[in-house]
Amino acid sequence: MNKSVFSHRVIYADTDHFGVVYYARYLEWMEAGRSELLRKGGISYADYEKMGFFVPVVKLDIEYQSPARYDDIVDVETRIEKIGNSSIHFTYDIKVKDKIIATAKTVNVFITRDGKKVNVPDEVRNILK
Amino acid sequence: MNKSVFSHRVIYADTDHFGVVYYARYLEWMEAGRSELLRKGGISYADYEKMGFFVPVVKLDIEYQSPARYDDIVDVETRIEKIGNSSIHFTYDIKVKDKIIATAKTVNVFITRDGKKVNVPDEVRNILK
Amino acid sequence: MNKSVFSHRVIYADTDHFGVVYYARYLEWMEAGRSELLRKGGISYADYEKMGFFVPVVKLDIEYQSPARYDDIVDVETRIEKIGNSSIHFTYDIKVKDKIIATAKTVNVFITRDGKKVNVPDEVRNILK
Amino acid sequence: MNKSVFSHRVIYADTDHFGVVYYARYLEWMEAGRSELLRKGGISYADYEKMGFFVPVVKLDIEYQSPARYDDIVDVETRIEKIGNSSIHFTYDIKVKDKIIATAKTVNVFITRDGKKVNVPDEVRNILK
Asked: Whole-model pTM?
């Protein structure tokens, strides 16, 4: 199953003085979602780093539909939409109590420490199957 | 001139263990950029709040082209691209030493505290002129 | 048992370019620890807010002994050390794989929305028993 | 003069849903304060890193007296209180409109990348004179 679910209970640190989750905080939970999804391929992100690979976000689109609030449990469902030669396209459904409150997409690329693109490892491709 | 420039020197808090600015931190400086731009219209964001108006981001697109690093001075140039009935479209050029390292767009909407859309105030429209 | 354990797997967002968890991030997990401990008294922090009570930190001491790193699971053990008329003294053992990496204390006070001190509710006192 | 002043205008990202600055955010501005103070000695923190030195916080005490709020300008006055063989004791007065809202102390140590303590460089000692 090519999906991970990362859950986070909203704390004060996540909220702003309008009373809702600050728009940048979702990106942290999306990072955790990607990390959990890669782990499903059998190799953790930390393992990739040991091999000298990194997977930064190069493009992000997000639509915020409804706010999340203090003490809500936010579930981030992360999926792989597409795998290119060196890129992975992730999609995210961000939910509170099964209602989608935001949707997002990121494009990530596999690179070496000095920034050279490398092929997406087979373990990652296997998540899709 | 319908542009604001917000500058920030990168601190440890902004960076991650790959040695670059974490992708969510740019959103904070973009917030500061929007805030400075609205202030140019003669009414600060804080003033709008006192009137009962809020301007959340409902859509965000960002492309990360090169990393910023510790102690870099990051300049966020914010412009208003378009103003709708209740929405404002902002664009952002994010630079280090005059080189663009990321570009972004957000759509923000003017709402009341209970979430009802309201018309964009004239002071904001005047920034464009 | 007057203890809560909050666990968090370290993500990129938590780390800095020296390769370790940034010193301010622990405060977020300590907040989650306090929140979980109050919940054990039968009333969540969110419930207290609905009653008009807030519990800000007025004093914090923390000693950092060893760093936590990316992908580590950090466990925050939170205890109530002492309860005054309107104050609670929390202690925190912050661990990675059962090794203490930091210890902290906070003093929190129960206040109303407009900042007046109120007595610590009995539900919180019951956690100690 | 052995003092630096770092000023920051509070943005949404800094605040929480109680309407005040979140307690961990001050630590970021204290970091910026330390950094500005070291720069006065003639060598920036970034320069020390190039020499292989790092200066982590090993102990932090902070007292929060009054809240800072959205759009406030927070001034962090950082001073060196004492210099040991390998440690520096910093003190911080955190102010809004010249009123102290929080005071803090940190102990930082000069270490190499692999964590060995080294002597505080003379440039830093010169700040005190």
From this structure: 0.97
